[in-house]
Amino acid sequence: xxxxxxxxxxxxxxxxxxxxxxxxxxxxxxxxxxxxxxxxxxxxxxxxxxxxxxxxxxxxxxxxxxxxxxxxxxxxxxxxxxxxxxxxxxxxxxxxxxxxxxxxxxxxxxxxxxxxxxxxxxxxxxxxxxxxxxxxxxxxxxxxxxxxxxxxxxxxxxxxxxxxxxxxxxxxxxxxxxxxxxxxxxxxxxxxxxxxxxxxxxxxxxxxxxxxxxxxxxxxxxxxxxxxxxxxxxxxxxxxxxxxxxxxxxxxxxxxxxxxxxxxxxxxxxxxxxxxxxxxxxxxxxxxxxxxxxxxxxxxxxxxxxxxxxxxxxxxxxxxxxxxxxxxxxxxxxxxxxxxxxxxxxxxxxxxxxxxxxxxxxxxxxxxxxxxxxxxxxxxxxxxxxxxxxxxxxxxxxxxxxxxxxxxxxxxxxxxxxxxxxxxxxxxxxxxxxxxxxxxxxxxxxxxxxxxxxxxxxxxxxxxxxxxxxxxxxxxxxxxxxxxxxxxxxxxxxxxxxxxxxxxxxxxxxxxxxxxxxxxxxxxxxxxxxxxxxxxxxxxxxxxxxxxxxxxxxxxxxx
Length: 559
Prior knowledge:
Elements: H1 5-46, H2 54-68, E1 73-75, E2 84-86, H3 91-108, H4 120-141, E3 147-149, H5 151-173, H6 187-194, H7 196-230, H8 232-242, H9 246-258, H10 260-272, E4 276-278, E5 282-284, E6 288-291, E7 308-309, H11 312-315, H12 319-336, H13 349-374, E8 386-387, H14 390-432, E9 436-439, E10 442-445, H15 453-461, H16 503-506, H17 541-546
Helix pairs in contact: 1-2, 1-3, 1-4, 2-4, 3-4, 3-5, 4-5, 7-10, 7-12, 7-13, 10-13, 12-13, 12-14, 13-14
């Protein structure tokens, strides 16, 4: 009994941790649903002439929350009496559930004090299960209201969005690892993931693709803002006509705010070329606005261009995908040829082009996903198609970023390496010639004394210090000589470095030994300039006359 109690306690702790993970997922779903419900009820209460009941407001809040996950709703009460689908996801509102699920899955893997942390699979399963349980209750609640949910859309994309957000949270809590791949994967993939260069290039692809998508969204938002300013009067008239009281205008304003990211995606699709559909019989592109548009009264839709062929101002929207391609090239070259790395550390042209091409593929895939979420049906017949076509928008983003990004990355890489080679050649020229000093951009010659033969022999010859024994003489004129009648030895190996040989001694003829060195000819003291010595300008004639006798000759300069 005593031995089995610790295992029982560990099993209870593990079950408690999994139950806590399930509860965290349910709480995340409740927070998102509660926040939407509070806003809807506040608007319903503030409405002066509301003919709906509190139950209808709660049904609308639950349906709006499910719509934020990608579920497709159906409006039962319409003017024509035919139920109409609603499939446009408000992207700004969709950020709330995605962030809540991500945070719940990430925080579950942080162990509490005294409790073990669950496994990654257990945390993922419990958080997703708790969240989907609340989602199923909300879908059952709206089943009989004015807004009902279509069951297939609860599985895709709603459940996929929740599972992807939870998986991203688990991956973040685990340190964002890459690999290992499954056991059935080929061996080459295992070897590639084990290399640090593969992980570096994979991270570069991810960052460049994300930057390209961000530039496309930013450019699309800029296009929408300019169009709204250009059509300010129609947008204001549409805003006033939708509601007469202040509560209704607040509701319209909030709805326009949550649809701003959708408008940015529409603007990006317009700049890419495919444009977007305003019903089944109308398409808006930079080249032309054709067909019979079915435009509901809404302020953001008042920013669409005028009908007819496009002008130069419409064609200028093509600068948005060009900027995205340049961004992909720049983020690729930042890692392919960093400013502080040498040529040997830079990636090759094929590797740079491959990374830029894969980033273009990622940019196209991300743009296609956003275009699929930003568009959808708003009704039947003419409003069955509304927004950009996801596969055309993704393909256009891929083509634009590949055509601009890949050559741009190669050109930026070549420019950086050429600039670095020019700097390296200039530095090598300045450092390689001891008689040249860099003064700004001008090479100034500086007089440098010639190396003595002793120095040359020490550099080229035989490895080690040399010392000389004086052959005799009354002047003691040998190198390092002492007084008269004494034999003076040079520095012994291991004692001191060899004395510096003066240019005066180096200029003596072979077989001649210098006389006593005057004080000015001694090596400079510490702190004295070694470039120009005072003995360089002293006359050497008397020294030559004194050392011209063969019997006073010391060792030759070439010894």
